[in-house]
Amino acid sequence: MGAQDWGDGTRAVRAGLPEPRKYEPPLPGPVFAAHYHLPGEPTGPYTYGRDENPTWTHLERAIGELEAPGDDTVDTVVFASGMAAISAVLFSQLRAGDVAVLPDDGYQALALVREQLEAYGIEVRTAPTGGDAQLAVLDGAALLWIETPSNPGLDVCDVRRLVAAAHAAGALVAVDNTLATPLGQRPLELGADFSVASDTKGMTGHGDLLLGHVSCRDTRLAAGVRRWRKIVGAIPGPMEAWLAHRSLATLPLRIERQCAGALALAEALARRDDVTGLRYPGLPDDPSHAVAAGQMRRFGSVVSFVLADRESAERFLDALTLVDDATSFGGVRSTAERRGRWGGDAVPEGFIRFSVGAEDPDDLVADVLHALDVAART
Ligand SMILES: *Cc1c(COP(=O)(O)O)cnc(C)c1O
User: Fold this and answer.
1) Of these four, 81, 104, 239, 353, which has the most CB atoms within 10 Å of its CB?
2) Are residues 207 and 329 in the same domain?
């Protein structure tokens, strides 16, 4: 039985481990090195600490095994953060005069990226994620950026359909897979050229480090991304890389629990009449469910919904005892926030983005229902 036949749990606990060596730990510890012994001709792989590090190498192999099981042509590059990974793809691939298509409802910092791309003479077009609306603005594009499910609105687009149209138009396709993680969706298998993620979120899952990665199958594209990392120096620390690798072993356990909790929470919220605008792609009657079910293996840990107004949302967040009021998502401890407090997303004042952690779903649902009752009492 080859590695491509393994289940996710088996693959995750073994991912990226080097060949066993007597007296060495299964996962070698972080290598702290600015430079390596290098007598004579400076040949690789390890010469200078900004270029390569053995701890990154192990992590990159591990992530690659999750992104494209059984495919050893996949090349993964890890970065200091999700934004470093996103910037590496966009700024290494696009040139002045190119057209890039971004979602208009994606991660907040994309608006800043857009300004920077435009300052470099790149034309940026945007369209919503839902309804595959980016199809309408693909003409002449060099690169299509997809974020599905989108953060925070949880809309979903049909990756295979967008990839087919983009490739026909001569555009590369990158998918921000942060919300789903490779256990929820594998963009490279859906045809994308780049699978990109902030591993700060569900991938590492403990809310204690920032990290990002880019995976692709084309060695030339991968080399461009790796070169960009060397130029800007957006490299992860060895300790972060090692912690991330250690965390990957429990990704299937965490994701299973978090997805089950998210579905339980969404089902409970669906029965409340003080909750509107409920979105979770795993709910059978969610507008995204049919498309999501065709490309996702798990529907993620984030649920979004709307309470009457800003005050109700704030009372709700205050009344929660198992859920921290914090941004970010995907961690083992549930978090929630009133997204409108940032001002960047087009969301109602009472919009809540809720990230379901690894608590027992019954405890979490009880806490949420209690907090909703408190919020309704004025
Ligand atoms: C958080 C996030 C990012 C940015 O990641 P950092 O690790 O914070 O730099 C990018 N895309 C999505 C969808 C995110 O949620």
Assistant:
1) 353
2) no
- CA dist 282 → 32, 286, 354 (Å): 42, 7, 14
Mean local confidence (pLDDT), 252-275: 98
Ligand 1 geometric centre to CA of 157 (Å): 19
Q: Which helix (H) or strand (E) holds 325?
A: strand 324-325
Kindly state whether residues 223 and 258 are assigned to the same domain: no
DSSP string, 112-157: HHHHHHHHTT-EEEEE-SGGGGGGGG-TT-SEEEEESS-TTT----
Residue 85 contacts residue 202 (beta carbons within 8 Å): no
> Which ligand 1 atom is nearest residue 211's CA?
7
Enclosing domain of residue 262:
252-377
Give the residue carrying structure tokens 């009021």.
325
CA 102, CA 117: separation in Å to the nearest integer? Answer: 11
* 79 pLDDT more than 90: yes
| pLDDT tens figures, 289-317 | 999 999 999 999 999 999 999 999 999 99
Atom of ligand 1 nearest to the CA of 328: 1
Cross-strand pairs, 101: 125, 144
Structure tokens at 319: 């009344």
Confidence of residue 90 (pLDDT cuts 50, 70, 90): very high
Is the CB of residue 367 less than 8 Å from the CB of residue 326? no
Together in a domain, 22 and 150: yes
